[in-house]
Amino acid sequence: MNTSVIRLKTSLQDSVLELLNEQIAMEAHSSSTYLSMAGWCYAQGLNGSGDYFKKQSGEEREHMLKLFDFITDAGGLPVSPDVTKIERSFEGLRDILVKALEQEIAITHSFNRISDHCHKVKDYQTARFLHWYLDEQLEEEQQARRCIEIYDLIGAEEGGLYRIDKEIIKLKTKE
Asked: Is 128 within 8 Å of 74 (Cβ atoms)?
């Protein structure tokens, strides 16, 4: 099947399109990782944390689809990625919280790299589009840090894990 002439006309440079498709893959992986974290939490009876990570998973999927739509609207070809190597077992809730923060920091670095590249190749339209993600990542990192702070302040001993679980989901209900 031949590609429509309309779809052959795009202002997206190949290098930018490749980076955006890589970011789609990163968001898909992040969404699946958060869903795995949610499953682990539910299996441990940490339903508040499970709900928190399930919501995080949905947000990452929305981020992925926003990139997908941008590429489509710009006349490019978005790629639906394979998602593999999702961690399924964790040492504990704090381990999950730290991994969530590390994941968000990696995503921030990726968006900074794409933004930098867009400026270098003078793709200001895509750079402007990415500003929303940069603002969003500041929020995501702050929330991930707050989850670790809650864990460390309350402590897991003497019913603390129950309280931590109740506090973490409150971060999502404020949104």
From this structure: no
Q: What's the Cα-to-Cα distance from 117 to each of 17, 42, 47, 90, 127, rounded to whole Å?
A: 11, 40, 41, 35, 9
Interatomic CA distance for residues 110 and 114, integer angstroms: 6
Is residue 106 a contact partner of residue 41, using CB atoms and an 8 Å limit? no
| Type of residue found at 111 | F
* DSSP character at residue 96: H
| Phi (first) and psi of residue 31, to 5 degrees | -60, -45
Cβ contacts of residue 123 below 8 Å, gap of 6+? Answer: 11, 12, 13, 16
How far is the C-alpha of 123 from the C-alpha of 132, rounded, in Å? Answer: 16
Is the pLDDT at 174 greater than 70? The verdict is no
Q: How far apart are CA 64 and CA 61, in angstroms?
A: 5
pLDDT digits (tens, 9 = 90+) for 58-105: 999 999 999 999 999 998 999 998 898 998 989 999 999 999 999 999
- 87 vs 24: CA distance, rounded Å: 19
Domains along the chain? 12-79+90-173 (1.20.1260.10)
Q: Which tokens in the block code for residue 99?
A: 């991994």
Half-sphere exposure of 108 (CA within 13 A, CB side): 16
Q: Where are the alpha helices (DSSP H) in 1-92?
A: 5-8, 14-43, 47-73
Which of 117, 121, 133, 120 lies closest to 67, judged by CA? 133
